[in-house]
Amino acid sequence: MPPLQDAIPALSDTLTPPAIRGVADLTTFAYRGNGFDGLIDRIRPNPTEAGTLYDLGIALQLDFRRTEGLHLQEAALRHSPLFRLHRDAPQSEPIRLLALVGPGDLMVNTPIDFLTNHLDVRLDLLHVLSGKALPAIIPDHDIAFFAYSDPDPAMLQRLTALYRAWPRPVLNDPRFLPGVARDVLSRSLAGVASIRSPETASVTREELQAHLSSGAPIAGFVATDIMFPSLIRPAGTHAGHGLSLAHGSDDLRAYLQGTDAETFYISTFVDYADSRGLYCKSRVAFIDREPFLCHMAVSSHWMVHYLNAGMSTSAEKRTEEEAAMAGFDTGFARRHRAAFEALHERLGFDFYSIDCAESPDGRLLVFEADAGAIVHMMDPVDIFAYKQPQMRRTFDAFGTLLRRRIDAATINPDA
């Protein structure tokens, strides 16, 4: 079926969408120790059924009830494809930002409210739904952000056309999204001498079993005789869920026996442990090509995620992260300036982030590049005080980007 041909909605100064707490507010509330009942209490004072359903869908996902949460989200979107983020403090003349988003779980869109909740921004969410036209009227806005970070091919074509035709300044051209797909990124960055991005292929269970039984090569992956060690995970998973390190065929065979998944990603494993045997993995956000270190996790295990690295329980690790943040501009960012420039030339987003490290030979080791990864300020201030100014600086840079693009369009509306 060809993608829907959208008419650009009319813009209204008076249309007020249903209010929601949204992903950033509710995730932060849960992250600070509040359970499901507390989330419900936070959601309930909402005058609209659509807004209540939408936030309940988020709460259920935060309570690890993804399917139930998506059902409620679907019900909310039947009421309205438009929502406005609630702000406790009134704003006088905020930047009016419209984010074009898609339905799905908490990972499917750029977490735009994490970036804007600390800024003078009025944020509206417009859901672009498969097979459904856009609303005839939407709120007027100063700038639009294309935040749907995981569309299917038909939706990608539709979003790309909308980006070109949108009547207000726009950010994050969706045509760059295919280049950051997990099984494409290493090819997007191929030939850049200053970057190592582990080779990754999308593979089916059948293809893996054929390799195990006959040694058949896996299309798009490294040569069969250097296939191991490799990382394998089910397609569609995030944050290390289902991720395993296979040192050889026996490990791969055991992995397949322990999962029902039918499609996977397989990647070459790069051992980037430093001289201490520790793994330091960073999330760097790029805002209008300027880098910001949002966190650095330190772990003795190769599978590093901030939540499993024990950062909150180790003062020594936090001291290392604090030093990394303080010296980032003159250290890490300067060492990898050429790599960062190559990233910008090949990926092209106004906002995106990478999960990265330094390879043993000194190159920038890029594991993932993503327009949808979370950058946040949820960590307890009493433990992570040093992160507050760093993240405020990051968010302020996003606000500066919004104002710069709005001003440029005002000066040169035909650009």
Tell me what the structure shows.
The chain is of the alpha/beta class and 415 residues long. The protein has 3 domains: 10-171, no CATH class; 199-268, Dna Ligase, domain 1 (2-Layer Sandwich), CATH 3.30.1490.20; 279-385, D-amino Acid Aminotransferase, Chain A, domain 1 (2-Layer Sandwich). It is 33% helix and 21% strand. It contains 13 helices and 17 strands. The chain has helices at residues 22-31, 36-43, 49-62, 66-79, 112-116, 153-165, 185-188, 205-214, 249-257, 315-326, 332-335, 337-347, 387-411; strands at residues 10-12, 19-20, 82-85, 95-101, 121-127, 137-139, 143-146, 170-171, 195-196, 200-204, 230-234, 244-246, 263-268, 279-287, 290-299, 351-358, 364-370. Strands 2-3-5-4-7-8 form a 6-stranded mixed sheet. It has a 5-stranded mixed sheet with strand order 9-17-16-14-15. Helix 6 links the parallel strand 7 and strand 8. Helix 3 (49-62) runs antiparallel to helix 4 (66-79) and helix 8 (205-214) runs antiparallel to helix 9. The mean pLDDT is 92.
Task: Give the SSE layout.
Blueprint (H helix, E strand, L loop, with lengths): L9 E3 L6 E2 L1 H10 L4 H8 L5 H14 L3 H14 L2 E4 L9 E7 L10 H5 L4 E7 L9 E3 L3 E4 L6 H13 L4 E2 L13 H4 L6 E2 L3 E5 H10 L15 E5 L9 E3 L2 H9 L5 E6 L10 E9 L2 E10 L15 H12 L5 H4 L1 H11 L3 E8 L5 E7 L16 H25 L4
Parallel strand pairs: 1-6, 2-3, 4-5, 4-7, 7-8, 9-17
Antiparallel strand pairs: 3-5, 10-13, 11-12, 11-13, 14-15, 14-16, 16-17
Helix pairs in contact: 1-3, 2-3, 3-4, 8-9
